[in-house]
Every structure is written in C-alpha cells, then in structure tokens.
Design brief:
The structure is a homodimer of 165-residue chains. With 165 residues, the first copy, chain A, is mainly β. The first copy, chain A, has a single domain (11-132), classed as Beta Barrel (Elongation Factor Tu (Ef-tu), domain 3), CATH 2.40.30.70. The first copy, chain A, has two helices and nine strands, in the order βββββββββαα. Chain A has a six-stranded antiparallel barrel with strand order 2-3-8-7-4-9. In chain A, strands 5-6 form a two-stranded antiparallel sheet. The longest helix of chain A is centred in the last third of the chain and has 9 residues, at 151-159.
Chain lengths: 165, 165
C-alpha cells in the first residue's frame, strides 16, 4: 500500500480571486484584500509573529484535480519546456503552494498580508517566519529564465508587476 | 467530519543524521552527505532544475508524534516564549519542513544539495526552484530574535555555524 500522510487546514486564505487567480501575485491589489483567517484554536500560535516583516504562507491547492505532467511549459515562457520541479506550476504530485508575503498586521486570528496568487478560500496549512539569515539568498538566480531572450519581460510576470507589453 | 488532504512521498532525503538532527543546518557537513533520491517516475520533472543555484526542499516530518503547543520556547532562545507560527519548530499542526538549500548537482534521479536539518530518510514531498525575484527579500528581518540581547550569538545558531561559546 502506498504511504500517504494527512494534512489538515489550519484556516483559510481570503483573496479577491474568486474565479481566476493570477499566476503570480499582482503588485497593485488593494491593501486589505489579502488576509489569512486562522482557526481560533490556533490563534495563540500567532504570538510574536508580527515581529517579522515577511512570512511564508503555505497552502493546499485544492482545486487541482488532474495528474501532473513531468514536463511543463510555464505561462509567458514562450513555449520553453522545463521539468515540473524546475517550475512553480500549481499542478504537482503534492499541490502545496508556498508564497513569501509581507506581513501587514495581525488582529486576533486575522493576518493581513501582501498579495499572493491563490484563489479565495484556499485552505491554509502552515505559516512560518521568513528569517533573513536562513531564507534570503542574495546570490540566487532565476535559473532557466536567465537564459531566455526576453528575460526582463518574463521577470515582470514572475514578480506580478503589471505592464502593457 | 474534519477535512483532510493526502500527500505522498515523491522520494526521500538522505542525510548523515540517523538518530539526531541539528536544529538548523550545519555548515561543516561533508559535501555529498546530503542528497535527494527522487522516485524514478518523477525523475523527468528534474529537467532544467540544475539551472537554479538554490531550491526549496519540502518534506514531511514523519517522526513527529505529539500534539503541538501553540506557545513554544525555541532552542537557544534563553527561554523566550513565542507563538508556534513565529517559530520554525518542527512540531506543528502540519509537520511540513521547508529548507532553502544550494543545489550542487543532479545525476539522474539524485539531487545533491547543501546541508539541511532533516533526519536520514525523511520523506520528500516537493522540490521548487528558489527564484531570486520572488523569494529573496533583502529587507527581511529576524523578527523577535532581533530584540534579544545576544542576537549575534543566536543568529550563529539559526545559520548553523559551529562556534565555541
């Protein structure tokens, strides 16, 4: 029998994306449009979280209902084919999403955050502090995106910055 | 009935930590001691991953068998009490671990990485590229650790740098 592990929601993510979500966070979304509603039994676990500028939001992409392909062609990559694990595609063997977001404030069990690319009511499964010395890699790269001709344009998409071309 | 989601291993993590793991990665572990063994059916998903300097390794902390407390006192924090979600404690409602590691090389279904703090044979559940513009936050902080008197010392622990005091 195949080993499986169970995970459970610890809350939900509220976003303006009811029927469609951008592939990556949009920078011009309204403040206050994005927040986490943590189940009351976990609210005490948020103590001191507010001391962090950034947090990891970890969620379960529960709208995914297809088997993943091992080779994918990410949006706006102009047909470039890469391995699934070299992409941030939501269609993965374990559809777990991870976003680094700015922490805007906490009120009881509500955590206000900067935008992220998840549908409204996506199940929240964990929150972790983003800790500068562990998680900030200043010499990181953009991998295969760095090799593409229109890299600068693609990076606008990756960062979710609106643009006209 | 409570909602639960199922996740499944996509491979295992090999590390030198058979019976005890450091709280955070140690910098002086041997090259080649840390690698991911991806199940053969997912090996094609690694195509082009090697173009990234850093990757996220996502794993299931399957040795955890206790209910988490919502208030924790992280190791070497001198008794500081913080919320579970303001810590990287492995004892969480969903025991999912996330580490940013350096990608050293890939050989078929084996991914060589820099050190991380997981026990040998920890189930691997996902690999994602760490993409500079999405994941590197140069203005990130250390949250509540920044307020402690011996912050510099604690950061050595967080970074897993061996030291004598």
């Amino acid at each position: 029998m195949e080993t499986v592990f169970e995970i459970k929601p610890i809350g939900i993510i509220r976003t303006p994306y009811v029927s469609s979500a951008p592939y990556q966070p949009v920078e011009n979304a309204n403040e206050g449009d994005f927040y986490l509603v943590v189940n009351p039994e976990y609210a005490n676990g948020l103590y001191k979280l507010e001391s962090f500028k950034y947090i990891y939001v970890i969620y379960f992409l529960n709208r995914i209902d297809r088997e993943p392909s091992m080779i994918v062609s990410p949006p706006w990559s102009n047909g470039k084919r890469v391995g699934l694990f070299a992409s941030r595609s939501p269609l993965r063997p374990n559809p777990i999403g991870i976003s680094v977001v700015e922490l805007k404030g906490i009120n009881d069990n509500i955590v206000y955050i900067s935008s992220l690319d998840a549908f409204d009511k996506t199940p929240l499964i964990d929150i972790k502090p983003y800790i500068k010395d562990l998680d900030t890699k200043e010499d990181a790269n953009h991998g295969w995106v760095d090799d593409l001709e229109d890299k600068e344009h693609l990076i606008l998409h990756i960062k979710g910055i609106p643009h006209d071309y």
